[in-house]
Amino acid sequence: MLSNDQIFRYSRHILLPEIGGKGQEILLDAKVLIIGAGGLGSPVAQYIAAAGVGYIGIMDGDNVDLSNLQRQIIHNTADIGKLKVESAKEKINLLNPDVSVKVYPFVANAENIGPIIHCYDLVIDCCDNFPTRYLVNDAAVLFNKPYFYGGVLRFDGQAAVFYPPNGPCYRCIFPEAPIHGSIPSCQQAGVFNVLPGIIGLIQAAEALKWLLGTGDPLLGRLLVFDAYNMEFREIKVNRRLSCAVCGDNPVITKLSAENYMDFTCDDE
Amino acid sequence: MHITEVLTIQPKAYLDITSDSCPITLVKVLLALDSLASGDVLEVHLSAGSASKNVPRSLSGGGHIIHSMNTSGDGIYIMLVEKQGGD
Questions:
Q1: Model-level ipTM above the cut of 0.90
Q2: Nearest to B26 among A2, A15, A22 (CB)
Q3: Which residues of B touch A8 (CB under 8 A)?
């Protein structure tokens, strides 16, 4: 039963027939895990919290740095030096008292991710590196959790929903991580500051729609966005039967550290 | 209004939104309809003006049936709305 304050707070969602009071109560009972409290994680966390998702887990081992503030909008200048998860939790608590925030102030790895992802309805990948992305993908497949992918670099972004066998997983499309050093990081290549906002909110929109069971999800479709020319493109993507983790004869049947070696740049 | 007019249709629930303003008026009616079954009737008391003009229009637009909309002359309308669908 919604309180009088909740009726006011969520009135613009309750008015939508696709959400309504029942949908709002579904959101209040939902548990969402966000991996990364950076450029993508900032808008995702803020909007998911504002929507009234009742339980939000945020995992990130980093501290807020001055160079983050150009795009990581959940943090502000006074937060420099704080753990990103603590900074994010403070903002969410101020935004919406209906939301409980669980912080995981460490980097996801093969040992810790399983028991955590297990507790959530879905996972939103807001990480900035390939080892974590493959780890989150594989954990989502092995624990049967819908995985909301987003990635950004320079002026280009991508987003998709992975929930095999309904469509592919991330490994079906990109079986192997790129060769060490072949893809520059945001730190080296830069990122247009609004880009993670746009892509992050596509992830958040898909996650909210999924929880509500409404609309057409971004399954089997990779959305590719070019902010420079302001173009969206959609690539049809299929599940690969030979996929190492979601294929018919998977090689990866449990999470082992050797599958997620750090192949990001040495100078990061 | 005459009491006999109300009694021809028996409301399942009652809601007073005379002290609410737009859009909370409609939000509260939609939430009240949520707890009813399709075909049930809700009696709503609402103020003349924005509420009496817009709430029935939005409910009709949402597929619900407005059976009656009567005023007692004191600036309060009594609306009988029958829920349609949504089960």
A1: no
A2: A15
A3: 24
